[in-house]
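Ligand-bound model needed. iron/sulfur cluster.
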Amino acid sequence: MQKTELIGLSKQELADEVAKIGEKPFRAKQLWQWIYFRGETDFEKMTNLSKDLRAKLAENFSITRPKIVTEQISKDKTHKWLLEFADGQRIETVYIPEEDRGAVCISTQVGCAVGCRFCHTGSQKITRNLSAGEIVAQFMVARDAYGEWPSPTNETRYLSNIVVMGMGEPLHNPDNVFKALKILSDGDGIAISKRKITLSTSGIAPKIGLVAKELGCKLAISLHAPNNEKRSQIMPINNRYPIEEVLKGCQEYQSQMSPGRYVTFEYLMLKDFNDSPEDAKELISLMKKYKLGAKFNLIPFNPWPGCDYQPSSNNKVRAFSEILEAAGYEAPVRVARGQDILAACGQLKSKKEVVLNKKEP
Ligand code: SAH
Ligand code: SF4
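Prediction:
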């Protein structure tokens, strides 16, 4: 008999599975605690359950982590895992440590259908969506590595934040993504607060409001250009959902969140493409027009083998940031992490390819 995998079931679904094998609802609560609060994967070690029950659970259910294919740690301690699921599909997950906290960057799809020109993941065609369980399990693998079980109750956690910024477009897989994030933020288990979760999207306009409605976590929009003409050149999705629609989606998000919840706009600094003072001014007009409470994250472009773009110079990035800040917008420059192991933003990819060196004849 095929065992039912428990990771990724909602609380209600877990209760239903427990009822199916004739056990009382409180057993589901105990299981939830073992799985998500203690990180236990072995039914035999669930010591507050009788021996018979442990055997029955093991007969019917499984609690599985994906296989770790490779694991790399960068000079700056950024940690990257290449993970493989039961069907052989692979994705990457990254942990980015700070001094007294850190973010786990999780993937939502194998590949990505959006195909942004500057993104390594986008050059890998979409294979499939990840299930809720596969999304949750990525965080659990990272926690296993740092031994952060049971879930710490104080605020000093190594793994304190989640950024949905790995491979894939989360709003192309919203059901599984929101289900997973609800599990990860549930207070009886892993308990990462919604304020410490950021979902980043390339701008699937009609779904942006869901980020507030379904979860209420932070929202980041990959904007990367101040007008449709430029944005469409680097992000084909802009032909489907132009900037106006994306910003209306942001207004919808903001209207449902408590005041002061700003949207973060990610802005990739590409040399001689979107990094001039005029671009910065156009960006400011755009924000004013839509009356958005916004902050910017200026991202240095992370090159990858075979890409067509180059990063802007430090001077240009600084000047760009100063224009936005003078207009009252926060605009820090993000520090690239884990570049030496291709773990930085936009560098993730789980399929090998032959990279042609364009300089060679
Ligand atoms: N698909 C979602 C989330 C994953 S991408 C999205 O696009 O928002 C996470 C972030 O990395 C996005 O802001 C994306 O635009 C950025 N990114 C992609 N390629 C990059 C690169 N080569 N260098 C730096 N950032 C990149
Ligand atoms: Fe997909 Fe995001 Fe990469 Fe664009 S930047 S191709 S949406 S993962």
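The first strand starts at residue 4 and ends at 5.
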